[in-house]
Every structure is written in structure tokens, then in C-alpha cells.
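pasting input
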Amino acid sequence: MATQTTKQPDVVTSVEVIDGHALRIPMFQLLDKDGKPHEGVTLPEIDKDLALKMFSTMQFIRVLDERMIAAQRQGRISFYLSSLGEEAASIGSAAALKFDDMIMGQYREQGSLAFRGFTIKQFMNQLFSNAEDLGKGRQMPVHYGCADLNFMTISSPLGTQIPQATGYAYGQKHEDSGLCTLVYFGEGAASEGDFHAGLNMASVLKVPAIFFCRNNGYAISTPISEQLAGDGIAPRGVGYGMKTIRVDGNDILAVYAATQEARRLAVEENEPVLIEAMSYRMAGHSTSDDPTGYRTRDEEQAWRDKCPLKRFRNYLLSKGWINEDDADAQQQEVKEAVLAALKEAEKVPVPHIDEIINDVYDTPTEQLKEQLEQLKEHVRKYPDAYPKTSEGVK
Amino acid sequence: MAKMNLLQAINSALDVAMAKNEKVTVFGEDVGHFGGVFRATSGLQEKYGRSRCFNTPLVEQGIIGFANGLASQGGLPVAEIQFGDYIFPAFDQIVNETAKFRYRSGNEFDVGGLTIRTPYGGGIHGGHYHSQSPEAYFAHTPGLKIVIPRNPYEAKGLLLSAIFDPNPVLFMEPKRMYRAAVGEVPEEEYTIPLGKAEVVKEGSDITLVGWGAQIEVIEKAAELAEKDGVSCEIIDLRSILPWDADTVAESVMKTGRLVISQEAPHTMAFGSEVAATIQEKAFLYLESPIARVSGLDTPYPLAHEKEYMADHLKTYEAIKRSLNY
């Protein structure tokens, strides 16, 4: 039988009010904004191969994001969500995990997925909802997922993945797998009830989960000052009795080191950890909003100066692991590869109409089969009205 | 065989499932050492340990979110929501996550291992918040299975099917019958197929359809009607999603008449779906309009519970109206 274990409080005899801002949590940083390590710091052990993989993933994601925003503007895809300015947070954290650890994303972590090995072609197939999309063209662009890469399929509702991560990590612990789950979410999603539910349960049940908050300052147009009154998200971890780290999300080495330590705590000590990565959403929330309507260019410029890609690039240049020309050449190559993959993917047709009833259940019910037959008969009758699928039902 | 009430049958099903597969875990509010407020999980923590039968914090959306995650990892979680009336904080997790998990990922991931157990229904003086029958909200959600047993034998067989079914199942237990219904139940494992209705009693003059605790009400109404010389066919849907329209249609083609009796408020209760489907499938066989006997379109009242409920007398009157149409 469990017992009441909450520590009994000390007694005071006059009203003692704790200030709502009493807990100030510092931000862990290794590189300054120019990519120079602070004096006397211990940098995480990252060999050249890993460093270059992190860097090339950052470059790739930046190219992908910029190209796909343009593709949306051209009307080639319906929607896009960029991670511009936040590449270090996702890629640095993914790099610190084991490949078999589960990653659950919110929707702005394409960097983590690319780091795991999701190919340009796979990205494009999803973005164009075509027949080769792993998700069978069922969800809006950027709702990626891949079982082989241990990256859970994204869903739009905010925060729902947080308690799911707790449950997933419980299963990993139950199997004694030595693995953990890392779940991403934004500071806006941390206002959802699921955030509270997931973190509280993780602390109580002691699961190997890392709750990675990308605090990028905005939830669509709502600035953090209208989202919360406390000192960001990190102090909430302490409220749940959870180990907590605040890190500079634009410093990929610091993100890597923080996540590495969080992983150790999660896996070796079954201690869930909250990480708050401080960053800035350089682009709009999605292609459906224009940030000039709700923030100033000065503010954006201040963050552009802290660009995570530039910072890591400078660091690698100073180490002599890359040179300017090679880095630029690589970026140019990626641009071409992205464009070629885009052109390829937009030619692939949508999935066959039969896919519309698959995967609702493990096998389609009789009712669903009946509905599909009726639908196909209808499409056959009006093929011009359903040009994407009418060929397939002839 | 052993004499069990419905709660003991549930407990026995959980026991069998946990013994059979170590991936089965049972959790929710107060389900651990205490064994649940209704005692459905009694003794399971002692037998299988705290890692497989445990308390959760008081947060329904968290319980189901957690359960979704655990199921997606390959587990077979059986999550308890203490009362169906308190399932709504988890509505988003169930409707947007559980139900769409497989479809949205193109079958990359699924939560087929998940079973959600929750007591539902009135007749226990529970007022607004311990009496509701919220099945219709969930029946509007492709991707879920919804199962509602009527007695101890059905409860155990259907729950075992639900736990090992490769799809998420919402298993709603008629709490009024928890101790009231007693019957012979095998102690070992057995299953009853999901999605298949059962003709509980054959008859020729009228078809009576229901599910869960309402079958008892329908049986009482049929007894009254039989005294008037009316031969009633009674069908227990057992699953309302997916539901067995063919068995009902076949019966109605034989009897020409249909009365649906349900606990939930009248408008948009699951009986509406049954009525609409059967008039499509058996229109030319119908001798009278399909009738629905339901709760009133009010919140579930306390002092007027008896008046509110779709009881055997209201069902009996509907049978007579159908026959005299």
C-alpha cells in the first residue's frame, strides 16, 4: 500500500506570500551569438562526423523551409509550417538521442526527422499528399511520421502528444528497454490541459520522458506576454517536482549537452525532465499568417542576429571543420536536390480511392466497404467532377 | 462455471487478460490497491504488481492520453474512467487521437491495443453526473469500437474480446447492473465477437432493440406484451460501433415492426441511427412507424429519475402503439 509522502510544510505564524516570480531559472549557453565558446566551458563531445551531420541537416532544413514557403505561395501545396530560426532546438536535441528513442513532434520539428534520416523524397511525398506518402495523403502538409525512424506521426491538436509521451515512456520503462521518449511542443501548447496532465503523470509515475518546450515567443500571433504571466515554462517543471533545464535554443551545442544530460536522467534514473529551449519563430506561424501584422521588424532583426545556423557555422569555421566555399556549395547542392524532388513529387498521383476506407480499423467494416462501392459508382457516373481518382475506378 | 455479478465478471476478465499477456496493464483513478470505486479491479495490484495495476492522478485527459501513448508503444492498456459522465475532459484524446491514430499515420502507428472501460447509465439516484449514457457522442467517431454488455456472461466475453481486439474499444459498463445482475460465468477465458448483435429471444409480431442495461427493461416490457398475446423478438446490439444492422433488418423484415428502447436523451441518441438505417433496409416491410423510447431531452434529473427513464411501462406502451397503428 502506498502512503502519503508529501513533505509536511514548516509552520510560520505570519502570512507569508511567495512572489509569483520568486523562482528565476537561468539559461544554459555554451556559444555566444557569434559562435565563440564562453571562456572555460566544457563543450559536449561531438566528433567531426556528427558535427557535420548536424550542420548539413540545419542547412537542408533551412533550404527546405524557404523553398516550400515559396511553393505554397505559388499554389503548388496548400499549406506549410516553417521552422526558420529554430533549427538548433530540434536538430541539437534529436542528435543527443539514441536512434531507437521515440520522438513525438508538435509540427515544427522537421529538423529532428531529417536528422533521423527522412529523405527529401519522403518529405515531398507528404507535402504533396501523393500516393507514396507514408501517411497516404490523409493529413495536411508537415504532418510527418515514420515508424522506421521512431518518429510518431504528427496530429494537429495542440499538446495531445504530451501525455502520450508519458504513456509511451511508461511502456519503454515497463519493457526495461533502456530507451526514452522525447516530446516537442511550443510554449503556447503548454497552456493546454494536456501539458499539465502529461507532466504531472510523468513525475508521479517516474517515466523516462523528456518534455522539450520550444519557447519561440509566439503562438500564431499571440506573444508570450499574453500567453502566460510567469517566467516562461521552466518553473512549471519545478512545480511538478520535475528536473528542469532552461537552455539557449539557438545554441546547438548547449541544446545537445542539455538533452544528453536529460536523457541520462531519464534512462538511468527514470527521472522525466523538462527542457525549455529559448528561441524565436523567425517565420510566420504558417503560410496562413503574416507576422508583420503583429510584431516589429526591429524585434525580428534582433533575433536574426542570434541565428542558430550562422552561430554553428561560425563555430565550425573556427574549428576548421568546414570552410566557407564548401558550406556554400553544399547549400547550393541541397537547393537543387530539393527543387528536383519537388518536381518529382508533384507528378505522383494521389492515393487510389480504395485507400479512403483503409486504416479506419485494422480491416474495413462491412459498412465501409458498402460506402466505398457507392462512392466508386458515383465517381464512375461523374468522372469529370473527381479527376484525381476517376481514372482508378474505371 | 461460477455465479458472478457483473463486477465480478469484469474483474475475472481483467484477471484472465493480465495472466495471459503481460502487456496488459490496468489503471485509472483509485484502481490500484483500493480496487476501484466499484471494486472492478479488486485484487489485481496484489496479484500482478504495481507496475501493471496502478492509480493515476485525477486527470481524465491524461489517463487517455497516457493510454494512447502506451498503446502506440505496443502495450495493451485497459484504462478506467471512473464514471462515463467524467469522460468529457478526455473527449479530445478519444475523438481526435485514439480514433484517428491508425488512419492519420497511414498505419505507421496505431492504438489498437487500447480499451477504455467506463460505467454508464442511470437508475442509481446519481443525478446529472453519475447517470448519463454518452455512447452516441462516440458512435459518431469513425475508428472507435463501442461495446456495451447486458449481463455478467456477456461482460466477460465481450471485455476479453475488446482487450485483445486490434482496434481501440470503448467498453461501457451498465453500472445499475454491476451488482444487480448475477449469472453463471465460466472462470476461464472465452470471447464473444464484437460487432455482432444477438437475438436474445425469438418472436414474430414485433422487434425490440436495445443494448446494455436496457435489455432488462425490454425483457420486462416484452413479458407484459406476451400476456396480451404479442410475440416479441428481442435483439441486444452488444456493439453499437460498428453495429449489426443486418440482424436487426432481418428481424424487422420478419416482424414488420420495430421499437428501440434506450436510456439516453431522445434527440440524436443511437436509436436514431438504428431507425434511419432500418427504414432504408426494410421500408416495404414496415407495418408501422419505427418507435423510439428514450430518456427526455433534459439533463438527467434526480428526484424525477423514475419519470425520466425509458422504463418497461413506456416501452410496453410503445409496443402497443406500434401494434395498434
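fyi The first helix of chain B runs from residue 6 to 20.
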